[in-house]
Specification:
The structure is a homoheptamer. Chain A contains no helices and nine strands. In chain A, strands 7-8-2-3-6-9 form a six-stranded antiparallel β-sheet, with no helix packed on it. Chain A has a two-stranded antiparallel ribbon with strand order 4-5. In chain A, strand 7 and strand 8 form a beta hairpin. Chain A is globular. Chains in contact: A-B, A-G, B-C, C-D, D-E, E-F, F-G. The interface between A and B is medium-sized, with 21 and 28 residues. Strand 1 of chain C pairs antiparallel with strand 9 of chain D, so a sheet runs across the interface. Chains A, B, C, D, E, F, G: Belongs to the GroES chaperonin family. Chains A, B, C, D, E, F, G: Keywords: Chaperone, Cytoplasm.
Chain lengths: ~90, ~90, ~90, ~90, ~90, ~90, ~90
Amino acid sequence: MNIKPLFDRVVVESVQSEEKTKSGFILPSSAQEKPQTARVVAVGPGGVVDGKDVTMEVKIGDVVLYAKYSGSEFKVDGKEFTILRQSDILAIVE
Amino acid sequence: MNIKPLFDRVVVESVQSEEKTKSGFILPSSAQEKPQTARVVAVGPGGVVDGKDVTMEVKIGDVVLYAKYSGSEFKVDGKEFTILRQSDILAIVE
Amino acid sequence: MNIKPLFDRVVVESVQSEEKTKSGFILPSSAQEKPQTARVVAVGPGGVVDGKDVTMEVKIGDVVLYAKYSGSEFKVDGKEFTILRQSDILAIVE
Amino acid sequence: MNIKPLFDRVVVESVQSEEKTKSGFILPSSAQEKPQTARVVAVGPGGVVDGKDVTMEVKIGDVVLYAKYSGSEFKVDGKEFTILRQSDILAIVE
Amino acid sequence: MNIKPLFDRVVVESVQSEEKTKSGFILPSSAQEKPQTARVVAVGPGGVVDGKDVTMEVKIGDVVLYAKYSGSEFKVDGKEFTILRQSDILAIVE
Amino acid sequence: MNIKPLFDRVVVESVQSEEKTKSGFILPSSAQEKPQTARVVAVGPGGVVDGKDVTMEVKIGDVVLYAKYSGSEFKVDGKEFTILRQSDILAIVE
Amino acid sequence: MNIKPLFDRVVVESVQSEEKTKSGFILPSSAQEKPQTARVVAVGPGGVVDGKDVTMEVKIGDVVLYAKYSGSEFKVDGKEFTILRQSDILAIVE
């Protein structure tokens, strides 16, 4: 996918709930208000956001935890993606 | 169209959902809460917005992804346009 | 009309929807949520607004696009005027 | 009346809707959501308001336009007054 | 009363609506949304409030006008008091 | 109790409404919207809170007045405590 | 668990309400609006959050009190965790 997020935005790709991370982390896909795990597929350049300097801490390939309902979802070639602000990402799961 | 957006505003022209971008990006036109793709047709000069310096990162011709319902829509000669703040633009699609 | 807007305020005069701008820009008068076109008739001096320095970018005679429902309407000698903050103005139409 | 507004506050006295300003400005008294005209009768000293330096631009005797429902009304000896922040004043009418 | 308001807070004591100030200022006690007059009985030291330096402009004995419903009311020995931020005080009545 | 409030937080212990302060201050326990009196039992270190430097002005043993419904209540060994931000404290009662 | 909170975020593990802290602190698990106790299991690096420098004051192993309903809950291998901002933590219990 050739998408360049602006500023502090990050594109993530849904991680199947069957898929375990190295730490054995599983989130039931039916958990409505629970944070979501996803794999980072594109990262904005950071820079000045709302007059404040933002450094990007996540990188492509990171599996991250983010609050469900943050960001906007879209589809490319049948795959579901979400575009988030980095500040919506809670943690990196290793 | 001869419209000069002020400050950090950007005018975009709706991209038909039948139209594929280079990356094969398609958004079903019926997807109500999904981000929209559009082509930039006019870009404001940037400058000080709410006391913060804004540099314009998008340029005329860019295909961008923006959150539906941001901005204001208007029509010129039957074509639909939307005027957005640059910060409402999520990503550039290539 | 002898009205001096304070700070970053601008007085605009409703442009009839029958009236075309140079760019052929027309807004149906019934379009409720659409931006409005209007002609600038008075411009405040700018200066410090909410602790931030504001420079006025519009001038008397400009035809501008602004989000409907921003500003306050009033009447003088039967003509309808609207008083806006400059930041409510989306673009200059030429 | 011996009332000293604090900071950026201004006391205005209702202008009768029958009374014309020099510019022929009339506001029907029944216009509920329209801006109000009033004569300034007391002006605060300005100074630091919410951490920002405010200079007073209106003076006693000015006829001003302000958004209805801003400020607080009170009565002295049967006359109605309103106390506003200067930022609620839209324009000076001459 | 031995009460020391913190920061920019001020304790005021209800002025009987029968009581006239020097300027003949009267507020009917039934006026629900009108500003209230009250006598200042304790004044905080000012200082840094929300990161901004606040200087106290009112002093004990001042009769002040404040917007009803601002502040918190309490009783000591049957008398009613209100504790306000100085910024809730509209004017000093003399 | 061995509880260390973080930043600008303060732990207070409910003062029985039967208990008089030195100034004869009494608050009927049924007064729902009235400020509450309480004795300070733990004080945070202050420091940078929301990017602003906060100095603690209250100390253990102070009887304070705070707006009801601010803070969070908890129980230890049957006693009721409330944890507040210092900015929720209106005054020190002596 | 191998989870790295970003910025000022902290992962905490629910403390059983049967479990007493050293200070004898107990929170009935049915108390809906009461603060929660939990043990810190991961701490973000702090740094610039919303343009303000944040220093982490809690460390792994601390038992903390936080306002219920702050943060996001998730499960790993059947254990329940919550991810919070440090500013949602009210106090350290010892």
